[in-house]
Amino acid sequence: MKNTSINTNKTQSTMIKLGIAAMITLSAQYGAGALPISIGASYAQQAGVKEAIELIKNKSFARAHEILLSHAKQGNAEAQGLLGEMYWFGDGVAVDAKEAEKWFKLGAEKADPKSQGFINLIAQREARKGEISFYTNESVDPKFRYLDSKCITPDYGINSYAYNQKLNTIWRKCYREFQGAIKQAKEQDQVVVPEDLLQILTEDEIKKVEANNSKIADLILENMEKSKSEIDKAFVAWAETRRNELRNSMAEKAEIPMRTVELPKTVR
Questions:
Q1: Which residues contact 75 (CB under 8 A, 6 or more apart)?
Q2: Which residue, 169, 161, 181, is CA-closest to 246?
Q3: Whether the model pTM is above 0.70
Q4: CA-CA distance, 254 to 97, in Å (whole number)?
Q5: Of 21, 62, 73, 211, which alpha carbon lies 20 to 30 A from 11's?
Q6: pLDDT value for 25
Q7: What per-residue confidence (pLDDT) applies to 141?
């Protein structure tokens, strides 16, 4: 059994579903101020939805789906959100993200909190689809580097040489520490995925991450090396530019040929 990040233990599939659903519902309720049930929903619809919720808890998915589909078609927002959730997680039906999104959109239009929460989740997944592809081992795009969220890339700009040297030292220390953490996670068979990304992965995607964890860790380490090389080159380029500026300035002040001015070499 694997862990779900360097600092997070693996959660059982059922708990992942419940946790995501609860997080989404609470987020929508307090973030959007949505109403729990669409205004104007009939007593019969409310009773039917409550019955469906109990059926889902008891894993009587077929009957729950029948009830929710009937009320969802009549425009009940809560039923639409619950029906979308069944398709999202594959409860009693085949997993169907498009069908789920269809019902979530309808529910969200009537301010159903569950639907709004899932619409937000879908938007997050769309924004990070390239990153999801990388961590599920479906692509090897080096621009997705777990390191980037851990160590702030130094921007040398017009700072003093001493200050930029300090920035470089801080970055390299962070790099070494994180590199060691990734290697340790790989050795201990822990999943190396950013925690905020892990929260929006599907169960199938988490399984892919677990199955390909070692290869993903190697890709992260490889990309970290590329990042380090780029940072080193940027620092050397800045130092060379700065040296030339100082050389020209000193030569102008002394009114002597530039070739006679010798400056200390950059420490690399």
A1: 38, 106, 110
A2: 161
A3: no
A4: 72
A5: 62
A6: 53
A7: 79
Phi–psi pair at 3, nearest 5 degrees: -90, 160
Quick check: 165 and 232 in contact, CB under 8 A? no
Cα separation, 20 vs 125, in Å, equals: 13
Residue 240: which residues within 8 A CB-CB, separation 6 or more?
A: 266
Residues 6+ apart with CB under 8 A from 249: none
Q: Give the DSSP H or E segment for 159.
A: none
Nearest to 46 by CA among 70, 79, 21: 79
Give strand pairing partners of 146. none
| Measured distance CA(5)–CA(17) in Å, rounded | 18
Give Rg (Cα) of the chain.
27
Structure-block tokens of residue 138: 């479906």
Question: Which ranges of the chain have pLDDT less than 50?
Answer: 1, 3-12, 14-15, 26, 28, 30-35, 37-41, 256, 258-264, 266-268
Instruction: Return left, alpha or beta for 38; rule: phi > 0 is left, psi -120 to 50 is alpha, else beta.
Output: beta
**Going by CATH, does the domain composed of 13-127 fall within 1.10.10.60?**
no
Give the pLDDT of residue 184.
Answer: 94
Please give the Cα distance from 184 to 172 (Å, whole number): 18
Closest CA relative to residue 213, chosen from 194, 185, 234: 185
Strand partners, 3: 190
| DSSP 8-state secondary structure symbol assigned to residue 144 | -
Nearest by Cα to 109 from 79, 77, 85: 77
pLDDT computed for residue 160 by the predictor: 78
End-to-end distance of the chain based on CA atoms, in angstroms? Answer: 44
Q: At what angle do helices 77-89 and 61-73 cross, to 10 degrees?
A: 140
